[in-house]
Amino acid sequence: MLKVKHLSKSYSSGDQIYPVLKDVSLEVGKGEFVAVMGPSGSGKTTLLNCISCFIPHEEGRILLADRDISHLKEKQLSKVRNRQMGFVFQDFMLLDGLSIFENICLPQIIARRPVVQMEEKAKNICRLFGIEKIMEKYPAEVSGGEKQRTAVARALMNNPYVILADEPTGNLDSKSCKAVIDAFLQAKKEMGATIFMVTHDSFAASFCDRVIVLKDGQVYGELRRKGTRRQFMDVLLDTIRTLGGDGDDDE
Ligand SMILES: Nc1ncnc2c1ncn2[C@@H]1O[C@H](COP(=O)(O)OP(=O)(O)O)[C@@H](O)[C@H]1O
Ligand SMILES: [Mg+2]
After folding, report:
1. Ligand 1: does its nearest atom lie under 6 Å from the Cβ of 171?
2. Distance (Å, rounded) from C-alpha 121 to C-alpha 158?
3. What distance in angstroms lies between residue 136's CA and the mean position of ligand 2's atoms?
């Protein structure tokens, strides 16, 4: 569903060039829940921003359902981001002036979809995530976990090819964290969603099918979940420890 091929990206400041992603290649299959883990500064956010083409890269290709989106014009890109990608951010990015229900509807309003169909779909997703009771509330009136489940619901509205999530549990306590992960798992199970999640949290990553480990802008390795979730989490914790960082993002 999503393929990244030989992606390289550097930032420059003055006449200095800092390579951040070095020949990164990876694939995420349809219906897969994949995490990217790595120490702070390893290039996780940069990778997500390159995949969504929010920032340009120097080398490599980004394929979404086998279509190369690396060189699209801004207008086509906006359409791809609205219809084929769903986004979930650490700080929720909900619109404070809209209700939870209206926030969830937003991607379909932008895509100019028929209202009846849109409301039906939003209600179904709210039901699936157990947030129908807060539909009429505003973001300031709900908990962090509820905000993030709202963001996941919104990301699903246009049935995107892939959901891109950057540290979605980063601002949440452990109970809310699990509620958000459950929303992803439900989206995968009930809607066949494909999820690509960047996280420094071994607990969150241990629910994934596969974890790609990033170090200094390179793919260091890949771990496929085997055994119980608890065992997988221990493997992830060990790996992150070996990398010489706790993977904690404090920025
Ligand atoms: N806009 C930018 N300009 C210059 N350097 C940046 C920019 N964004 C990130 N970097 C640098 O690129 C590296 C990777 O950052 P980032 O992708 O945010 O890592 P992560 O999300 O894994 O913590 C870091 O060294 C960071 O300082
Ligand atoms: Mg980051």
Report:
1. no
2. 9
3. 32
Q: Tell me the ligand closest to 248's alpha carbon.
A: 1
187 alpha carbon – ligand 1 mean position (Å) = 30
Residues (pLDDT < 70) of the chain are 245-251
Name every residue whose Cβ is closer than 8 Å to that of residue 64 and which is 6 or more positions away in sequence: 1, 2, 80, 84, 85, 161, 162
The two beta strands, 59-64 and 2-13, are antiparallel
pLDDT tens for 214-234 read: 999 999 999 999 999 999 999
Class of domain 2-94+161-242: alpha beta
Instruction: Please count the other Cβ atoms lying within 10 Å of the Cβ belonging to residue 51.
Output: 24
Q: Which two tokens stand for residue 79?
A: 């359409």
Q: Would you list the domain boundaries of the chain?
A: 2-94+161-242
Torsion of CA 212, 213, 216, 219, to 10 degrees: -50
Q: 21 in helix, strand or coil?
A: strand
Location of structure tokens 């993002």 = 249
Q: Are strands 59-64 and 67-68 parallel, antiparallel or unpaired?
A: antiparallel
**How far, in Å, CA of 225 to CA of 165, rounded?**
20
This prediction's pTM? 0.94
> pLDDT at position 243, please?
84
Residue 96 and residue 87: Cα distance in Å, rounded? Answer: 17
User: What pLDDT, on the 0 to 100 scale, is given for residue 251?
Assistant: 39
Rounded to whole angstroms, the Cα distance separating 108 from 128 reads: 18
